[in-house]
Write a structure and sequence with these properties.
Length: 309
């Protein structure tokens, strides 16, 4: 485990998952599905991914005043995550995600944000000492933007690097800036943030340049079955994906981000860190559920050893 502290700040959800042979069309009812409940939320997924990958992780999130909150806390602690800064907000519910998945691993998601959008800038002020006592921050776009902005201000003042996974984009209220040391997006998010089409390799590279011009030192565009494109100053490269048989792509991006943060804190090169993250993500898509699919460090290392011969 890395001695350097990674603080993840973001959302927590309880996932209600239905696996179907195909996704329903508008107005269609599809029967015969398989149901499971799992813990999710982009922030929680990334915290769990980082913890299982060997990170020294603190998680700052907001849960509702309900029975799900205790389940979430127990789940985080089981993965060795520090929960001292978790906020319990009375009068609201813990976030809930409704997920439908087809037999090719494609999904529909609907989220009732609840406590995730109840996080306030003053909450982040209360957590300032915990934020400052971090070697790196990992954030997403599923909490109130005002709270996210406050975290970025605290981090910038303390010179703490921030990996910002800009997902989901939504109305993009948090501006991309040099407060992000690393920006991680998929093709759709890259297109929305850059204002450019992202289909061909040339378009991917142009979008990455546009995003880098907004301030982030490193831009990573994940490309699904096409791998990923990484750009940092004069260093640019594509990484091919590991070939696996996907079952469920839920939390694949979150697993990537959590593993990436751990690898960078360990001092791995950018290339090695992104290979490590790609391997973790590849393992996750072969399993059902968000957090149930996230691999351990031993599994990631074994996967890389096998694939690299």
């Amino acid at each position: 485990m890395s001695s350097k502290r990674l603080t993840v700040i973001g959302s927590s959800n309880v996932d209600m998952i239905c696996q179907l042979d195909h996704l329903p069309a508008l107005g269609e009812t599809v029967t015969g599905g398989k149901f499971m409940q799992a813990m999710g939320g982009k922030g929680a997924n990334q915290a769990v991914a980082a913890g299982r990958a060997g990170g020294n992780v603190r998680f700052i999130t907001c849960l509702g005043d309900d029975a799900y909150a205790r389940q979430c806390l127990d789940n985080f602690r089981n993965d060795g995550i520090n929960t001292d800064s978790v906020i319990i907000r009375k009068g609201t519910h813990t976030g809930v995600a409704l997920i439908m998945i087809d037999d090719q691993g494609r999904n529909y998601l609907a989220i009732a944000s609840g406590a995730n959008h109840a996080i306030t800038p003053s909450d982040m002020d209360s957590c300032e000492s915990a934020i400052r006592d971090s070697s790196m921050l990992l954030m997403q776009n599923e909490i109130a933007p005002e709270a996210a902005q406050r975290v970025l201000e605290i981090a910038a003042a303390a010179n703490i690097p921030v990996i910002f996974n800009y997902a989901p984009v939504g109305s993009a209220p948090v501006p991309v800036s040099d407060k992000f040391s690393c920006l991680v997006v998929n093709e759709t998010e890259a297109s929305q943030l850059s204002g450019l089409q992202v289909c061909s390799r040339e378009q991917v590279e142009k979008a990455a340049i546009r995003l880098a011009e907004m301030g982030p030192e490193t831009v990573i565009i994940t490309l699904g079955a096409q791998g990923s494109y990484i750009r940092r100053r004069s260093e640019q490269f594509y990484l091919p994906p590991f070939k696996v048989s996907p079952v469920d792509t839920t939390a694949a991006g979150d697993t990537y981000c959590g593993a990436l943060a751990v690898a960078l804190l360990e001092g791995q090169s950018l290339r090695d860190a992104t290979i490590f993250a790609t391997a973790a993500s590849a393992i996750s898509v072969t399993r059902m559920g968000a957090q149930p699919s996230i691999p351990t460090r031993q599994e990631i290392d074994a996967f890389l050893k096998e694939r690299n011969g």
